[in-house]
Amino acid sequence: MCAGRVMVTEKLLKGIVNFRNGDFETHRQLFEELKDNQKPHTLFITCSDSRIDPNMITGTLPGELFIVRNVANIVPPCRETSEYVSTTSAIEYAVQMLGVENIIVCGHSNCGGCSASLNAPEKLDQLPHTKKWLELMESVRERVLSEFAEDEPTVREWMMEQINVVEQLRHLMTYPYIYEKVMAKELMLSGWHYMIETGEVFIYDYRAGEFRLANGSRA
Description:
Number of domains: 2
CATH topology of the largest domain: Beta-carbonic Anhydrase, Chain A
Radius of gyration: 19 Å
CATH architecture of the largest domain: 3-Layer(aba) Sandwich
Largest sheet: 6 strands, mixed
Strand content: 15-25%
Strand order of the largest sheet: 2-1-3-4-5-6
CATH superfamily of the largest domain: Carbonic anhydrase
CATH class of the largest domain: Alpha Beta
Oligomer: single chain
Mean pLDDT: 95
């Protein structure tokens, strides 16, 4: 095993020791309460990107968020299938079994999945499963490429990330049990765009049809 891997392993081992002696002890009562069941208030759907920490961003503790992560925070449209479906089953479980009150789809800046989707499909030939997964963003890709100029790559990436979040909110509404709960005001859907480099979170305003800064600096 190379020295770099040994250092990472040691860091992780030290981390679990520090957790047990530090954060766990601080929240011992909370973990005691969570040992037999969970009652999260929010289903948080976000990207697998290592730079995204849902609990840190939202200031929540264990037990509050039911978290689903995948490449580019995608929600497959509702469909009948006999395949093994991770994201779909997690959504079903969170809404039908756990009774979450909110679903947040959180995209982010510098999203590798969104960026890859904007490139020519053949660039992903060595990643066949990723390529197939990103087909779910094809309508978003087509819109961005047609509406935003090629000489503005930053704008294209920004809009790809934001429009993708809105598209996934639409996909959520194709699930009958989600549609019914939203219409009955028993469930709220929200779209976020998180900026890694600034800590800013923009939340989609349905009425205005745009993302608005929700946590601007108070300095």
